[in-house]
C-alpha cells in the first residue's frame, strides 16, 4: 500500500537571471516502513524532492500525498536529517536533542527519559552534558539523528547525511541508522550520490537523470541484502551484481555523471 506518493511533481526555480527546470513530472511512491534511496549526480534535483516532501517548498506542479492526505494538510511529523548537523553550539547535547519538545512545549520527564534512552542507544551516554564542539563529526551526526527521532517522525528524510564523514565513520553510522529505522519501523527516503550506500541501506533504488530531474530506472534490492547490516551487504556476492547493473545504467544515460560518481571509488 502506497503511503507517500509523489504524483507528476515538477519544480522550476526562477531567479532574476535564471530559470532552472529542476524536476519534470516526477512520480513515485513509498510504502509504509519501506526504505527508498534516490541516487543521482549532484544537481539532478534530489534535495529539491526532499524539500518538497518536507513541505518546505511548494512544487510548481503536481501533488504530494502522505497517508492519502495532501502533505501540507497532513498532521504526521516528517523528520529531516542533513549533511550538516545544525546543532546549536551553545547548548549541550541533551538540550540540543530536547529542542523539539522544548519548542513544542511538550517537555516533560518522559521526553527527557526518551532522549537519554536514545542517546544511550547511539552510544552517546558519556557526552550528554558536553557541547557539540567537543564531539567528532560522527558523534554530532548521531546526536542530530536522535534529535530528529525525538519528534517521532512518521517519515524520515535523509539528505546525504553521511557524505561529510570519513569512510569508517560513515559505515558505522549506516549500520546504526539502518538498525534504528528498522527497530522503530520508520518509512525513509535517503538521497545520496553513493551507489554503495544506496544498495546497502535501502529496499529499492530510484535512479535519477539530471536536467531536468526525472527517474530513469528503479532497482529492487534483493531480499538477502535487505535483511543484512549495511556493512555486510557490501561483502555479499549479490552486492556486486547490483552495483554493476546500476553502474551500467548510469553509464548508458549519463556518462558525465558516472565520472563524478566514480570519484567516490577511485583513489
Ligand atoms: P541535488 O540535491 O541533486 O544536488 P538540487 O535539488 O539541490 O540537486 O538542485 C537541482 C537543480 O536546481 C540544480 O540545477 C540547482 O542548481 C537548482 N537549484 C536548487 N536550489 C535552487 C534555488 N534555491 N534557486 C535556484 N536554483 C536552485
Ligand atoms: Mg543535494
Describe the structure.
- The structure is a single chain.
- The chain is of the alpha/beta class and 267 residues long.
- It has two domains: 2-76 and 155-266, P-loop containing nucleotide triphosphate hydrolases (Rossmann fold, 3-Layer(aba) Sandwich); 86-153, no CATH class.
- Helix content is 38%, strand content 25%.
- The strands form two sheets. A six-stranded mixed sheet has the order 6-7-8-3-9-10, with helices on both faces.
- β1 (2-14) and β2 form a beta hairpin.
- The chain is globular, with a radius of gyration of 19 Å.
What's the arrangement of secondary structure elements?
Layout: E1 2-14, E2 19-31, E3 35-39, H1 46-53, E4 61-66, E5 69-70, E6 78-81, H2 93-97, H3 99-103, H4 109-121, H5 137-150, E7 155-159, H6 167-183, E8 187-192, H7 195-201, E9 204-209, E10 214-220, H8 223-226, H9 230-233, H10 237-253, H11 255-262
Parallel strand pairs: 3-8, 3-9, 6-7, 7-8
Antiparallel strand pairs: 1-2, 1-4, 4-5, 9-10
Helix pairs in contact: 4-5, 5-6, 7-10, 10-11
The site of magnesium ion has 2 residues, from helix 1.
Radius of gyration: 19 Å
The neighbouring-strand order within the major sheet is 6-7-8-3-9-10
What would you give as the CATH superfamily of the largest domain?
P-loop containing nucleotide triphosphate hydrolases
Poorly predicted regions: none
Number of helices: 11
Total discrete domains:
2
- The number of E-state strands comes to 10
CATH topology of the largest domain: Rossmann fold
What is the H/E string? EEEHEEEHHHHEHEHEEHHHH
Helix content: 25-40%
Q: How much of the polypeptide forms β-strand, as a percent range?
A: 25-35%
Top CATH class of the largest domain: Alpha Beta
Give a short account of the largest sheet.
Answer: 6 strands, mixed
| N→C terminal distance | 43 Å
CATH architecture of the largest domain: 3-Layer(aba) Sandwich
Derived from helix and strand composition plus strand pairing, the structural class reads alpha/beta
